[in-house]
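Reviewer 2 asked us to include a model.

Predict the structure of this chain.
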Amino acid sequence: MDTAYVDFWDELSWSGNLTMLTAVDLHQPDVEGGGTAALPFTVAVKDAAPPTKYWVKALEGPEGPFALVAEAIVSRLGKLTGAPVCETAFIDVSAFAGQIIAPGHRSQYRLSHPVAYGSRDIPDATARLTIGYRTVGDNLARLAREYVLHEWCLGGDDQWLTDPADRRTYSHDHGRWLNRSTLRRRDVPTWSASTLDKELETHRGNGHRENAIEVRDVREAAAQAAAVGRTDLVAVLDPIVTAWGDAGITFPDGLSLEATMRRVGRWLEKRRDIITDRLREYSR
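Predicted model (structure tokens):
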């Protein structure tokens, strides 16, 4: 094991940075319309004018805290690398403490932790399980950056949105990434630092994605991801520790959230080098 990695992540002092939006209105999930297994609710946030709608998931939701932590890691890293992920934010839902979400539904849950995580709504977006409009506008280059993110973070359970305004394609709902399974399932997703270590050199691959990208774009996206440094990774992970470090989350390997984020940071560094070295020489 590389001592430099161990020393840095084991001795890192988290800065405690956390920026949140504040929920001022809450609307229950549309359980009659099908919704998703995660039962996200929607909120308006007062920090935007006019109020902006976010789709929000909570630690107490039916997919559990491991899915929410994965969502935060992947979406924040995707934003950093220019991948086509939705805009996300930590959401202060303390005004709704104790409220039951999806009352009467078999997976109803009660809000207790004050910090949730949300994805900004794309008005009238079309949801799909396959990639659409891949050659429209700048989608080819954006999808190449998503492909690198998918490889880096063990992507799975593809879910896509298309913005009708410009037909830009977005990857969303990453709760089943960082996971061994690529399948769309309804069980509670689990992962840990220990399972990630076993997948360090996994070549995920995805034929559907590979049919939607160009060699040149993938190589450029890999070079961009290779430039992501330790400071960047700390900025991705630090707010997660700050937001949920007090929630008592214990991963399946027995590690706390804080200890897991140290291991994740080290894993992301090593995985970055493995993936980008390969994809900078990408060919069909």
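Residues 257-279 form the longest helix (23 residues). The beta strands are 20-27, 41-45, 52-57, 88-92, 100-101, 109-110, 115-120, 126-128, 160-162, 169-171. We have added this to the supplementary material.
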